[in-house]
Amino acid sequence: MRSALLVQLLSGHLWFTAAILVVILIALDLGGALRDRPVARVAARLSFLLAIGLGALSGTPLPWWLLGPLLAALGGVILTGFRPARGRGAFLSGLAASILVLASVAVEIPWHRDPRPSSRPASVVVIGDSLSSGGFGESRPWPARLQDHAALPVRNLALPGETTGSALTYQMSEIEGSASGSLLLLQIGGNDLLGETGVDEFERSLDRLLEESKESGFSTILLFELPLPPGAWRWGAVQRRLARKHGIGVIPKHVLAGILANPSMVDDGLHLRDAGHEALAADLARILGWKG
User: What is the pLDDT of residues 33-75, one digit of tens each?
Assistant: First the structure.
């Protein structure tokens, strides 16, 4: 149960759960199902507030143009909804909130779809941190296992403790001769998020990293989206904004979240056991459509 809840939280799937709950509660209220049931109205109001809280905890980085009106509409429902008598304001607020919640779902769904390269690369290069480098008691890290699953050469440049800034210095300098016709997997940013790097600094470093990656001539570049703890939505917003800017594909955060939230696959909540490395390699081979 704890693992399932953690996956919901870190993967952003909690947003969809919250959205469904909000729309159902508004429909019950506007449809008159709660009109003569004071206890049910109180329960519905509390559930509505809970759903808003769950949506906030999901760390979903909605664009401002949608988030602002959505919060205003939800506030209108809180002020006018779930009452014995419903006026025009309650109806308009509920209708607007429902439409905007559904719009937010439509905007968010594409970020949860698995990318699929248009062609099979000649090889794979991995830039990353300790999740990819290994060195914490496992027999082989996931890039080596991906080579087995995909029947492709995989060059693993990942180093423990790396940030986006240090990867620019110590890993990008090693890709010469490896880029042409290759796919680049960027698993980086966790140490920025959990360490002392500010969001603005993270954005500058990631922007430069993606720019240099594109200039290097990789056929495809994919960025692992960071599983986000509550309150860290700005980090996800930066990744998505820069991915759009540079035309980079994004591996949805549920891929890493499902593994990091599973106690059997991690040692300390951060570093993967053999089972975690194997699961990630198998997931990537499936997502990318590769067969050994």
Answer: 988 899 999 999 999 999 999 999 988 999 999 999 999 999 9
User: What is the DSSP secondary-structure string of 107-133?
Assistant: HHGGGGSPP--SS--SEEEEEESHHHH
**Mapping DSSP to helix (H, G, I), strand (E, B) and coil, where does residue 185 land?**
strand
Q: What are phi and psi of 224, to 5 degrees?
A: -70, 125
> Any residues with CB less than 8 A from the CB of 34 and at least 6 apart, and which?
28, 40, 41, 44, 82
CB contact at 8 A, 292 and 285: yes
d(CA 128, CA 141): 12
257: Cα within 13 Å, side-chain hemisphere: 24
CA separation for the pair 168, 208 (Å, rounded): 8
- Residue-wise pLDDT tens digits, 168-186: 999 998 987 777 889 999 9
Q: In degrees rounded to 5, what are phi and psi of residue 157? A: -100, 0
Backbone angles phi, psi at 178, to 5 degrees: -105, -5
Output the furthest CA–CA distance in the chain (Å, rounded). 73
CB 266 within 8 A of CB 260: yes
Alpha helices in 58-84 (DSSP H): 64-80
Cβ-contact 234, 261 below 8 angstroms: no
- Supply 59's token pair: 């760390």
> In this structure, are residues 210 and 221 in contact, taking their beta carbons and an 8 Å threshold?
yes
